[in-house]
Structure formats: C-alpha cells, structure tokens
Design a protein that fits this description.
Layout lengths: L1 H17 L5 E9 L4 H14 L4 E8 L9 H6 L3 E4 L9 H18 L3 E5 L1 H14 L3 E6 L10 H15 L4 E4 L2 H9 L8 E3 L15 H7 L7 E6 L8 H14 L3 E6 L5 H10 L6 E5 L4 H4 L5 E4 L8 H8 L4 E4 L4 H4 L6 E4 L4 H12 L2 H15 L4 H24 L1
Parallel strand pairs: 1-2, 1-4, 2-3, 4-5, 5-6, 6-7, 8-9, 8-11, 9-10, 11-12, 12-13
Helix pairs in contact: 2-16, 4-5, 9-10, 9-14, 12-15
Length: 411
C-alpha cells in the first residue's frame, strides 16, 4: 500500500509540474485613444505587460470625437490586441451608453477575464457596470484626475459624483495618480481611503534626455535662433485652458523683448486661440505648432515650460519637462503639487490669473542661474517617475488582487 500511495503521489507531482500556470487575463478599457496623458499610460501598461509571461492583455476603446487627435494606430503598431467599440462614446447618451455596456459585457464573457481595468470617466462607468453584470471579481478603475472643475454645472457635478459613488461600491481598487486626487475623492465621499492605491504616472525618461540640434529645430519651426523660448505642451481645450497661457505670454512679451512662445497640441479651441493671438498682436511671438509626435525634440530647446490647466491628474507633460531639465510654471491644481516643488523645480500659481503666471515666467527669464539650478533639481526629481516603476506597481496590483480573489473563491 505504501508503494501504491507513493506512486500516486509521484504521479500527482509529475502532472502538476507539467502544467503551465494560468496566465492572468486582463481587459483594459478606455473611452478613446486620443493624444494625451491617459492614453500614454494605457498604451505603456498594455504594451509592456503584453510581453510579460504572466499576462494576457486586451484593450477595448471607442471612437475619437471631432477636435481630438486619434492615436489608435499606435496601439496596433505596438502589437496590442485592440478592439474599437463604436458605441463607446465619450459623452452621456443613455441609449448609446447602454449599448456600449452590453457590447463590453459580451466581450468580457467571451474573454473570461480575471481583471478589468477601466480608464476615463465614461469608460469607467460603462465598463464597471458591464463587469458587475458579467461577474468579474477584480475590478480596477484608474482616475486620471477627477473632472470636477470650478465652473462645472451643479446638475452635471451631482450626476458625476452619484455615478462614481455607485460604481465605487463594486470596485476592488481605485488607482489615483496623485495625492490630491485621493483627497478630492474623499472630500466627495466617493469611497473610503483604503480603497485607493496611489500609483504615479511614469514616462520613458531617457527619451527626453537625448542631445538635439537646437538651432536646426528652431530653423524648422521658424523661430528666432537667439530668443529664449517658453512652451506649453497640451491640448487646446477647456481643461488645458490655453487662452490664459496666451494672455500670460502677452504680458511677458511687453516686458521682455527677446522671448518667443510655442504651444504644442491641437483641439477645439484652436480658432479661439488664433483669434486671441491676433488680438494681442502676438503673431510674431507665439506659434501654434499643432499636434506633434516629436515633443522629445522640442522640450530640450525650451527655457521654461508652462501649463495653465484648470484640472489635472498627474500631467505627463510635467514629467516630460522635468526629465528634459526644464523649470515649470503651472497653475496650482490637483496633482501639479505632487510634481512641481514650488520654488525648487518651478513655481505654482493660482488658476485664472495669467498675470501671476507671467510674473513667474519673467522671474525665470531674468534669472539664468536660478533656471540652471531648477533644471538640475527637476531632472533629478524626474527619476522617480519612470515608466518601469509605474508598470511594476500595476503588475503587483494585478497579481495581489487576483490572488486575493482566488483565495476568496476557494474559501
């Protein structure tokens, strides 16, 4: 009997050793792959973990609305298994949102996913409700900044908060990209603090530290070879608030002759921006460069990076600017204070006050030694925000929550 028992045990161990461990199946959902920070984060997570032996990564996204730059092709180029769902629109439309929920639920059931990871507001609600009805046990929502800005309508604010509170009840973990995002979530009673996980955005740091031919780039962009350069990287839309940057530029230009300005990005406010540039006689001073895929060539030629956003999560443009060694002048909103150390790596100013932004930009333009000092500190601080660090933390979160769900199911 002992020999028989030993043979059975040996056979059991032999069989299990031949069985490969099951990969964790993850479905990422984002409302649309438009150019921006949230898209960068999703593509980095998907592309890097797709190559990981422990994961199967799929991506679901929606169509891109007019006025935004569609970068869905990047997902295909990176080899990410991507499906575009026409019903996953980026605005509230009860019928279309319901259809999107059913379409995504069908994908979830067919794919038998272990982890659902949603990004952006509409996909966050639709995706989580779909996961709830599909019976997925691990549900993560990634907050790239709560879109709760000062002049948001009362009814829209109430609806948004109500939906977030509802979905949070069934969410395993909410990833916040900055500490102020956690504080705002607690202030609106969206969920309890223990449900949050703080994972900072990350970038490819080396990409923005490569030497460039500054004079050649200035020539390509028709910029003065001798002027100092102040630049904003961001969409031309309400959130990024480019009109205040243009107003600040006009104030700076009146006091400092040898300066020019660029805005890298495009969007629905391009016409208004151009009109304001004309009105303030900045045609020879401020240039709209549109969407570009070579930000890593433009950032190194800046003297100062500026950002006039009204709300943010943890701006990728800030991390890129810091990696390139640029002092930042930005509105003090949400996650900006997690990146910019006021007085050390740049300056934070009150939103809707372009004169304050202009004052700090001028201070830097007139203080080369301070700029040099801030460049050094900014680049050193940027080392903390690497893409590998971000992806490693996401990987650990997936495995931790998946393992806990398996133990719970077994119990």
């Amino acid at each position: 009997m002992e020999a028989l028992y030993k043979a059975i045990q040996d056979g059991y161990h032999e069989d299990t050793s031949r069985t490969a461990p099951r990969k964790i199946r993850v479905l990422l959902i984002i409302t649309g792959l438009a150019a921006g920070g949230a898209t960068n984060v999703v593509l980095d997570i998907a592309s890097r973990l797709s190559k990981h032996p422990d994961f199967v990564i799929d991506l679901v996204t929606g169509p891109i609305p007019p006025g935004r730059t569609d970068v869905t092709d990047l997902a295909y180029a990176l080899g990410i298994n991507t499906r575009v769902i026409p019903t996953l629109v980026n605005h509230i439309d009860p019928l279309m949102n319901l259809r999107a929920m059913m379409d995504i639920r069908r994908i979830m059931v067919e794919g038998q996913y272990d982890v659902i990871h949603t990004h952006s507001s509409v996909a966050g609600v639709v995706g989580r409700l779909a996961a709830l009805t599909a019976g997925t046990t691990v549900l993560i929502h990634h907050v790239h900044g709560w879109p709760l800005y000062q002049d948001m309508g009362v009814r829209m604010r109430m609806l948004y908060v109500m939906l977030e509170r509802l979905c949070a009840r069934y969410t395993t973990r909410i990833v916040a990209v900055s500490r102020p995002d956690i504080q705002k979530g607690l202030a609106y009673r969206i969920c309890k603090e223990e449900k949050f996980a703080l994972i900072y955005n990350g970038i490819d740091l080396d990409k923005f530290r490569q030497p460039v031919d500054a004079q050649q780039i200035r020539k390509e962009l028709n910029l003065d070879p001798n002027c100092k350069l102040v630049g904003m990287i961001g969409r031309l839309d309400k959130q990024k608030n480019p009109l205040d940057f243009i107003r600040a530029a006009a104030i700076v230009a009146r006091s400092y002759a040898d300066v020019q300005f660029v805005i890298v990005g495009d969007g629905s406010l391009r016409g208004e921006c151009q009109h304001l540039i004309n009105e303030l006689h900045l045609n020879e001073k401020l240039f709209l460069l549109g969407y570009r895929n070579d930000v890593d060539r433009i950032l190194p030629i800046l003297t100062v990076a500026a950002m006039s956003s009204l709300w943010e999560g943890l701006p990728i443009a800030f991390l890129e600017s810091m990696s390139a060694g640029k002092p930042i002048v930005a509105n003090d909103v949400d996650g900006a204070s997690d990146v910019v150390i006021n007085g050390e790596t740049g300056f934070l100013v009150p939103p809707h006050q372009p004169s304050k932004m202009a004052e700090r930009i001028l201070y830097l333009l007139n203080n080369d030694s301070l700029c040099d000092e801030m460049r050094h500190v900014a680049q050193q601080r940027s080392n903390y925000f690497s893409v590998q660090r971000m992806v490693n933390q996401i990987e650990s979160l997936y495995k931790e929550l998946y393992s806990a769900a398996q133990h719970s199911a077994a119990a």
